[in-house]
Amino acid sequence: MPADAWILLLISVGLGLGLELVYVRARWRERRGGSSPGGDERAGVGSEEGGRGGHRGGQR
Amino acid sequence: MTSATILGVVVGYLVILLAIGLWGNRESHDMAGYYVAGKKLPAWVIAFSSNATGESAWLLLGLTGMGYAIGVHAFWIILGEVLGVACAWIFVARPFKEYTDRYDAITVPDYLTERFRDGTHVFRWLSAVILLSMVMAYTAAQLTASGKAFDSFLGTGYTAGVWIGLAIVLFYTTVGGFKAVAYSDFLQGVLMLGCLVSLPVVGILEAGGWDAMFEALRAQDPALLEPMGAYGLTLGGVLSAAGSVAIGLAFLGSPQLLTRFMAARDQKQIIDGGFWAVLCIIGFDVGAVFGGMAGRTLFPGLSDPETILPAMSASFFPAFFTGIFLVVVLAAIMSTVDSLLILASSAVVRDVVQQALGYEASERTLSNLGKAVTVIIGAVGLVVALLEVRVIFDFVLFAWSGIACAFTPVVLLSLFWRRTTRAGAVAGMVAGFAVTVVWVRAFKAEFYDLYEMIPGFFAGLLACWLVSLVTAPDADAVEELDSVRDTVGPVF
User: Fold this and answer.
1) Distance separating alpha carbons of residues B359 and B344, to the nearest angstrom
2) Which of B102, B137, B194, B257 has its CA 20 to 30 A from that of B389?
3) Alpha-carbon distance B143 to B125, whole Å?
4) Diameter of chain A by CA atoms?
5) Which of B48, B99, B108, B491 lies closest to B273 in space, CA to CA?
6) Residue whose C-alpha is closest to residue B406's, from B85, B80, B131, B140
C-alpha cells in the first residue's frame, strides 16, 4: 500500500482511538485520585434509587 | 443457494431474537421500561448497540461496496466514523446523561423541552413530525432490503421476506421493549463485527496475500490506491473526502443513538463503554473497506459493487458461514429498524399523546399504547414496502441525514453553549432539516454530490447560533449548564 494511504489509514484509526485512550487514562487517574467521575453510580428512573429528580425532576 | 444448513442458521438466529423479546418482557410494562429499559443497561450493551443501530445494512453492503469501488479513498469514511464515535462518547455522552437523569427524561424531545424551559411543546411536535415521516420511509426501505435478502438467500419470495422480517422485529420490539432492542442489537453488533473481521482476512488470503492484492488493485486501476481517489487533489476530491468524513457527524446527536446514553445504568457505564464502541467501529469500518478491496481483486467487474459481500461469502465460506453472513445482513437491517420504530413510537406516545396533549393514563396503559403505535408504524412501513410507494421512497434519500441534521447541531449547542436559547434551538432544528431536504432535491447533483450532512449540519448550527444571539437565554438554564459542567468535570 502506498505511503500516503498508510498515513491516511493510521490517522483514521489513530485519531479517534488516541483520543479515547487519553480520555480513559484521565478517568483512571481520577478514580485513583479518589474523586469519582461526575454523576458516577447515580441512576435515573427505574433504578433502585428511583429518579434523582434535579431542580425540575419528578414533574412527570 | 438455499440449503438446510443456511436455513438452520437463519431459523436459529430468529429463534434467539424471539427469546430475547420474551426475556425483555418483564421490563417493558411502563414507559421508562419500554423506551429506555429502565435506564439499567451496562457498558458493553450500549457500546455495541449504538454502533449496530448507527450502521444499518449500509455498513455490510454499502461500505464493502465503497471499498470495492473507490479503494483507499474510502479510508476517509473510517476517519469520520471513528472520530464521530469517539467524540460522541468522550464529549457528548456524559453531560447528556447528566442532564437527562436530572430531568428523568426518556426521549430527546423530553430533554430539549426541559433544557429550554419550553411550555409550548414545540420541540415535541417538531420532533414527532420529523421522526415519524423519516422513520416510516426508512423502515419501508429496510423492509424492502429484508424482503430481497430473504428471497435471494432462501427463495422465500419478496413479499414473504418482507412479512417475515417485520414480524420478527415487531415481536421482540413490542414484547421486550427497549431492553430487547438493545440486547438484540448487542448480539447483532457482535455478529457484524465477527463477519467484518473475518471477511478481509479470508479475502486477502484468497487474493494471494497483502502485496499481491495491492498489485492486482494497481493493475486494475491506480486510482484505487490514491487517498484522493479518481478525483485527485481537486475541488471534487476535497469535497468527496469532506463528505465522507461528515458521515461521522450523525453519531454526535442523532436521537436513536442518544437514547443509548440515556439508557445507561450510570456514568461509569459510559466511561467504560466508549472504549469498546471505538474498537467496535474500527473493526466494522476497516473490515468492510479492506473486505471490499480484497473482493475487487477476486471479482473484478461486478455490475453492482454492493453485491461483493454476498459474492465472497458464497464463494469462500462453507454453507454454515454463508448462513451467518445472511444472518448478519438481516441483523444490520433489524438492528436499525427496531431502534427507529421504538424511537418514533416514543415521539408519538410519550411526547405528543402524554406530554403535549396531556393524556393521563397508567404507566401500563401508556406502555401498551406505545406497543400499539410501534405496530402501526411498522404496518405502514410494510404497506409502503409492498406497494413500493415511490413518493415515500424518495424520503429515504435524506431520512438518515435529515434526522441527524435536525437534532445534532441543536443538541451540541445545548450541551456546550450557555447562550443557546429556545428560539435558537427551534430555528436550528427547522433549518438543519429543511436545508438537508432542499440540498438533496435541488443542489447535490450540481456540487460534486456533496453529502447533505455538511450543508444541513452547518445550516442548523448557524441558524441556532444566530437566533440565539438575538434572543435571551433563560437564566435558570445558564446556571444549570454550569452546574452540569461542574458535576461532569473536565474531559481530560
Assistant:
1) 18
2) B257
3) 27
4) 60
5) B48
6) B131
DSSP annotation of B263: T
- Give the residue from B267, B263, B276 showing the smallest Cα distance to B179: B263
How high is the pLDDT of residue A58? Answer: 31
Cβ distance A24 to B274 less than 8 Å, yes or no, reads: yes
The three-class DSSP label of residue B151 is: helix
Report the C-alpha gap between B186 and B75 in whole angstroms. Answer: 25
Interhelix angle for B93-103 vs B108-115, to 10°?
Answer: 80
Cβ-contact B219, B65 below 8 angstroms: no
> Cα–Cα distance between B185 and B16 in angstroms, integer?
12
Out of B30, B72, B274, the one facing A5 most closely (by C-beta) is B72
Q: Alpha carbon of B201 to those of A37, A39, B147, B218, B290: distances in Å?
A: 40, 42, 29, 20, 9
In a 3-state reduction of DSSP, which class is residue B41? strand
Measure the CA angle with vertex B421, ends B416 and B427; round to 5°: 105
Assess contact for B467 and B424: CB atoms under 8 A: yes
Q: Nearest CA of chain B to the CA of A34: how many Å?
A: 14
CA distances from A9 to B79, B282, B367 (A): 8, 11, 46
User: Which sign, positive or negative, has the C-alpha torsion B62, B64, B68, B74?
Assistant: positive
Whole-number pLDDT of residue B390: 65
Helix (H, G, I), strand (E, B) or coil at B28: coil
Determine the 3-state secondary structure of B264 from DSSP: strand
DSSP B449: T
DSSP secondary structure letters along B217-255? HHHH-GGGG-TTGGG-SSHHHHHHHHHHHHGGGGGGT-H
Name the one residue in this structure whose C-alpha cell is 432544528.
B429
- pTM here is 0.90
Q: Which position has the higher pLDDT, B321 or A19?
A: A19
CB contact under 8 A, B282 and A17: yes
- Among residues 25-44 of chain A, which lie with CB inside 8 Å of chain B? 26-27, 30, 35, 37-44
User: DSSP class of residue A37?
Assistant: P
Residue contact A47–B85, C-beta within 8 A = no
Q: Which triple of cell numbers denotes residue B430?
A: 427547522
Tell me which residue in A9, A15, A37 faces B489 most closely, judged by beta carbons: A37
b/e string for B249-268 if b means 16 or more Cβ within 10 A?
bbbbbbbbbbbbbbbbbbbb
Chain A positions in Cβ-Cβ contact with residue B111 (cut-off 8 Å): none
* Residue spans of chain B under pLDDT 70: 1-2, 390-394
Looking at residue B322, its pLDDT comes to 80
